[in-house]
Amino acid sequence: MVPLSFGGHEWRALAQGALFWPARRALLVADLHLEKASWFARGGQMLPPYDSIRTLADLTALVTATAAEEVWCLGDSFHDIEGCDRLPPQARDLLTALTGTTRWTWITGNHDRVLVDRCGGAVCDEAEVDGVILRHEAIASETRPELSGHFHPKLRVRVRGKLVARRCFVASTRKLIFPAFGSLTGGLDVTHPEIVRVTGARAEALVALDDRLLRFPVAA
């Protein structure tokens, strides 16, 4: 975990694309997209059906490593409104263990605006916590410090002639956009007009490593 200051608070950025809030013992993630593979399978596109188990196993490991007491999921936690019903038993057991041992909150997203069963946890459209707004999709006009997901930002750079893509946070003075945490998710380039529209032209792409935080001006 590497230190990160934002919105008047101290955080820890994790290489897995999550954020830890030491003052609250809170772990924040975005865009799990659970049961995305089974959603595609219903349409005839067969994918390995292990995405939810992998994502939840990774999340369980982070909760354990950080000793998190609070978890916030910033929307699109399921790929569709019926995703929770399709969870295989192993994934459901992982999820209910998490929601049963932490103060768990689901922020709704565009993929999972309405869910009948979220396997435990509280639900809200957005929240304000200690002066920081938590929501799924950033609002350009929001002036308060805001954490969000939705865009799945990725930084693409050339290294020795090869194009390398890494998931990243995108940060401006008042906005911090999370990468997708889910194991089966794509992403938008950090220079995509929709990301620039909400963050402004002076945003930075932040790539968290185990021991340091790499910063790249989006304009570059």
Roughly what percent helix?
Answer: 10-25%
| Main β sheet profile | 7 strands, mixed
- The secondary-structure class comes to alpha/beta
Q: Identify the overall geometry.
A: globular
Radius of gyration: 17 Å
Q: What is the overall number of helices?
A: 4
CATH topology: Purple Acid Phosphatase, chain A, domain 2
Number of strands: 17
What is the level-2 CATH architecture name?
4-Layer Sandwich
The oligomeric state is single chain
CATH class: Alpha Beta
Share of residues in strands? 25-35%
Along the chain, the helix and strand elements come as EEEEHHEHEEEEEEEEEEHEE
Average pLDDT, rounded to a whole number, is 90
Question: Notable features of this structure?
Answer:
single chain; 220 residues; alpha/beta; Purple Acid Phosphatase, chain A, domain 2; 7-stranded mixed β-sheet; 4 helices; 20% helix; 32% strand
Structure write-up:
With 220 residues, the chain is of the alpha/beta class. It has a single domain, classed as Purple Acid Phosphatase, chain A, domain 2. Helices cover 20% and strands 32% of the residues. It is built from four helices and 17 strands. The protein has helices at 36-42, 51-66, 89-101, 193-199; strands at 2-6, 9-13, 19-21, 26-29, 70-74, 103-107, 122-124, 127-129, 132-134, 146-148, 153-159, 162-167, 169-171, 175-177, 188-189, 204-208, 213-217. The protein has a seven-stranded mixed beta sheet with strand order 1-2-3-4-5-6-7, with helices on one face. A seven-stranded mixed beta sheet has the order 8-9-10-14-13-16-17, with helices on one face. A three-stranded mixed beta sheet has the order 12-11-15, with no helix packed on it. A hairpin with a 2-residue loop joins strand 1 and strand 2 (9-13). Helix 2 (51-66) runs parallel beside helix 3. The radius of gyration is 17 Å and the shape is globular. The two termini are 26 Å apart. The relative contact order is 0.17.
